[in-house]
Amino acid sequence: MRNFLVLAAFVVGCLAVGSLGGLVTMTPVVEWYPTLAKPSWTPPSWVFGPVWTVLYVMMAVAAWLVWRAGEAKTALLLFFAQLLLNLAWSFLFFGARSPGLGLIEIVFLWLAVAATIFAFSFRSRIAAFLMVPYLMWVSFATALNAAIYMMN
Q1: Domain 2-151 bears CATH identifier 1.10.510.10
Q2: Rounded CA separation 125/107 (Å)
Q3: 106 burial level (CB within 10 Å; 0-12, 13-18, 19+)
């Protein structure tokens, strides 16, 4: 039962971060983001919600697997650090309406996610693999953020 409760806490925590980020982006996505020049390969807005939901659940399961493996304090600290950086990006890019600050911050997010995957790989290979799609999405988001910054 304890394992299930910890898994549920990881899922709720990750989705809460996503929801908080969503609250920050709600108004700017409607009022500000459409006014920006964006590259032709920008996904439609409806893609972001489902992609992030799946990624947050995968991240939660990965963290739970590492927690279950034990002796994972450093790995989980990295996980929570990258989760905070993930949230901070929403505040900087959308909340502050600053693609430049967002770009600087997302580089740190990318590094934190990569470090988390590395740390997770010592506790659970499956957990590390579950984080790879997230790193790929953050890589894409970094390129998109950079393009938006340069175009505006």
Answers
A1: no
A2: 24
A3: buried
